[in-house]
Amino acid sequence: MMRKFVLIIFSLCLINIHTSAPAVCAYETSQNADLQGNLITIPAGASFTAKMQSTVSSANLKAGDSIAAVLNEDWIYNGIPIAAAGSILYGNAIQVEQSGKGYKNGSFELRFNEIITTEGKSIPIASNTYALGVDENRPLKFVTTMAKTGMAILLDIGSRPQTYTRKHNKTYATGRAVAILADSALNTFLDNPGKNVELPRNTIVKIKLSHHIYITV
Asked: Are residues 30 and 97 in the same domain?
């Protein structure tokens, strides 16, 4: 009798193990599927917009300086919310040129590398370079200014030759004109600095990813 009772208990244990194992496997499979479904890839080239938090100017910016912008609208990719409006975008200035003599204009390049969402979550990103400079031909502008100056000097020599000549000596007149032109060129170079450029506060900038990013949502 005791032997039969033990056999019955053993059989029930085997049945319980056999019937419960698939349920455990099904749960693990379902859990793994949920984890995989939460991870999304946002490819390079995807973009969103942000608003500069402060004015950035080549006059006082240095390479390595931190910059910040704020998402002006929700960033949604393929219908999935990634970061809400108000999330902070951080980056750095990677190259800066200040304005200088001889129409040397200022310029800078910015790159963003992190988003801090309104929930405090950090999303590392790699953005394309955002470059800003003065859109003008510096050498052409300098040459044009010098040509105008030279023409004015020649016209002045023609109208007042006695001022530039010594006993109507043509060699002296030519040398005198060249010296005046050279002095004018130097003054033009020193007295005409280029322009600094700036990205005013609240300017909307378009941020584009340069590399894929992977986000769990």
From this structure: no
Domain of residue 143 covers 138-191
Contact yes or no for 201/54 (Cβ under 8 A): yes
pTM of the model: 0.60
Find the distance separating the first CA and the last CA of the chain, reported in whole Å. 60
The pLDDT tens digits of the residues spanning 37-60 come to 588 999 999 999 999 999 999 999
Where b means 16+ CB within 10 Å and e means fewer, 168-199 reads: eeeeebeebbeebbeebbeebbeeebbebbbb
Number of independent structural domains in the chain: 3
- Rounded to the nearest 10 degrees, how much is the dihedral formed by the CA atoms of 111, 116, 122, 125? -20
Q: Which residues contact 103 (CB under 8 A, 6 or more apart)?
A: 138, 141, 142, 192, 193, 194
Contact 196, 59 (CB under 8 A): yes
Task: Give CA–CA dist 175/188, Å, rounded.
Answer: 20
